[in-house]
Amino acid sequence: MIPWLDETLTFPPVETALTDPNGLLAVGGDLSVERLLAAYRLGIFPWFSGGQPILWWSPDPRMVLFPAELRVSRSLAKRLRRQDYEIRFDSAFHEVVVACATVPRRGQDGTWITSDMLRAYDRLHELGYAHSVETWIDGQLAGAIYGVAIGRMFYGESMFHRVTDASKIALAHLVRHLEAEGYGMMDCQMRTEHLASLGGREIPRAEFSRRLAELVNLPSTPGKWTNTRDDITD
Question: I want to staple 174 with a disulfide (CB 3.0 to 4.6 A). Which of 50, 133, 183, 229 is the partner?
Answer without folding.
Answer: 133
